[in-house]
Structures are given as C-alpha cells and as structure tokens.
Description:
The chain has 424 residues and is of the alpha/beta class. Helices cover 41% and strands 13% of the residues.
Amino acid sequence: xxxxxxxxxxxxxxQADGATCAPELADxxxxxxxxxxxxxxxxxxxxxVIPTGxxxxxxxxxxxxxxxxxxxxVRIRAAKATLGDRAVILGHFYQRDEVVxxxxxxxxxxxxARAAQTAPNAEAIIFxxxxxxAETADxxxxxxxxxxxxxxAAGCSMADMADIDSVTACWEQLEALYGTEPDAEGxxxxxxxTYMNSSAALKGFCGDHGGIVCTSSNAATVLEWAFxxxxxxxxxxxxxxxxxTAKAMGVPVELMPMWNPRKPLGxxxxxxxxxxxxxxxxxxxxxxxRFTVDxxxxxxxxxxxxxVIVHPECPMPVxxxxxxxxxxxxxxxxxxxxxEPSTFAIGTEINMVNRLAAxxxxxxIFCLDDVVCPCSTMYRIHPGYLAWVLEALVRGEVxxxxxxPQDVAVPxxxxxxxxxxxxx
Length: 424
Ligand code: 13P
Ligand code: SF4
C-alpha cells in the first residue's frame, strides 16, 4: 500500500482515483513557511484561525527543498549513524511514513513524551510530532537534553483554541461566581483539567490551581480523580473528549455547559454554571470533526459486520454511533488483537489508518472519511526538515529547540505528575 504522501501525489497527477481536501497538499510544506499570512497549511486545520504570535518556521535551505526523498533518506540515515545514541527520533502515529521510517520510537503523544526519558544517552530528542508534544518532552527531559521540533510551524489548531489569557479570565469569573471555599466533603468548587493537547502554559495553570493533565487514554481516570477533589471540572481545550468521557461516566449532557471565551460567563447563565458538573471549553480537533454518522451508516451498509472504532476527539453523535472508541493506542491495540480477518472502519488521522492497513493485510482497514485530509500541522514535518536538523546536529548546531521556561515547566510538571499518580 502506498503512503499517504504518495497517494496525494498520485491523485494530483491523475494516476489514482480519489480526492484530497486541498490540492496544495501535493506541494512541499516550505511553500507555507514563507506565506505572508501565517496559516496551519493545507489539511484538516486549514480553515482554523491561527493565533497571532504562533511560532513561524524560517525558510528551509533550498538544498533540502530540492533534494529528492531518496536523497533525503540517505542523508538522514548517514546523519543518524554519525550521531548514534546521542540523538533519538520520535514519531507520532499521525506522522507521514516518510518521516516515521526514521523514528526510533513510534507512539501516541504521551508514550513519546516518556520515550524521551528512556533514552538517557540522547543529548537531542528530535520530536516528529507537534509543538505541545515537544513542550511536554522538554518538561519531562533532563536539563542537558535538547528537544527539537523539525518544523516550528507544526502547532496544533486544537491546542491553540485555549490560551492562557482566556483560561485565566474564565477562571476569575468562575471564582467570582463560586468562591473558593470547599463544601462539607472538602471538595473545592472547580478543578481545572487540561488535555495533553494544550500549551505548557495551560499545564502550568493546572499545576498552580490544583488541577491535572489527561490524555485520551486516561481521561476517565483523571476525571474520577478530579471529582474526588472538586464539585465540578473545567475541561479544556477539547469539548468532545470532555463530553464523551464524562457522558460515559454517567454525567448528563445537560450538566455540561460549553464555555465560549468571547462571551461573559462563557455564554451561560449563573444558574447553569451552578448546576454544572463539567464546563467544556469551546475547542475541537479539525481532523476528528470531519467524521460523521453518515460515514458510519455508509460503512455499515457497504460492509455488514464492520467494526467501527473512532477516537474520542470525534463529536458525540459519531462516538455514540461507533462500536468502540478510544485513543490512538487503543485503536492500535484493538486491531492488533483481532485474531479473525475482520473489516475495520476507523475514525482517526489518515496516516495512522493507512499504516494499520499496511501492517495488517489480513484485515480490511479503511478510514471512515474517504477524502484524503491529513492533520495540517503534523504534515508540516517533511523529511527535508528532519535532514536539516540532523545534519546541523552533526555539525554541533542545535536548530529549532523547544524550551519551556522554568516558571512554567515546574507547575506543568506537577500537573503531569498528578496524572501519572492517578490510578483507576
Ligand atoms: P494521542 O496521540 O494522545 O492519542 O492524541 C491524538 C491526537 O490528536 C494527537 O494530536
Ligand atoms: Fe491537533 Fe487534531 Fe492534529 Fe492532533 S490531530 S495535532 S489534536 S489538530
């Protein structure tokens, strides 16, 4: 099976049937590094508003833009061989195959953050994922380890939907409404919970305010932890992960108002906020928002007996219509555990679904969305950038280092450690 990138090129040149969500996907990502208006680039997040001040990537030297993929692979392998265990390359499940083939570890955002710690000799951790993941790796890494993001424009539109100023303003309004006194059972009025897919500043905010981080694999355990300590939860940035998880735990959706940061009290009445159990931030993932109940209905009509598995970042009706839902790690394990040849329709990023289909040819595995539309920001990392940062390391130069300042890293680590200590 060809990689997602190859498929995109074949569709562009009319050699394959199918559709992509943007013709620009076939161009080198460096085209977008120099665009006067910063954008997430082609792919699922192309319609999202990029905040001013988002990191920009300077021009990739032309020798890397012009090199063929074959040449880049040779150069990457040579640089890796020279660096040996002084450098470790991490690849997220959603990363393109052309990058993943060079990764020492492949995993979800949290596994990769920890993988960095399991490479004690690595002076450089090259994170082929997105910005918040590189920040988390830096928070958990030793001081003498440099975390490198090969393309600084590889952000995350969902993480950018909640910023520290808007969350602080929300918190002040909630404190004015609820006060800060615990109830008779010792539970404070509200506990902040941030999804791993958020800036280090928001993880720090949670560390400073009795809160915690969660991932898509431990969100229910973390919400239990929070409900033991608080009367309600403020969950950011992903409304869907918050809603799907709390609903499965028995929280009625009516007790989950949404907080719109542009409106007073988030667009809610004080009574609604008083009765609430989970206040959901108005954020979402544009990759997972593409999945629909209609796609599931069509998959079931075409393949009776199909197993539909979706990620909890999908909207609630999609999760409700699926057979199962879970994190990227869950999806990976569910496919690996299937003993009989089966048909899987999967609602998560196309690079991961495509790779599963190639890895498990005994099954029929396809993405629920038949339009090829990768995560825009994961897609900003191309082997050209990987070769560029690795060859610089060989020369003793560290490019694109992600450094979380100590005043943010210390409380952020507290919120991450609370997550690690939380048990089901
Ligand atoms: P995980 O890697 O934690 O499953 O999250 C999915 C995702 O959207 C990563 O950006
Ligand atoms: Fe962000 Fe969604 Fe891309 Fe993950 S898949 S990095 S949440 S935009």
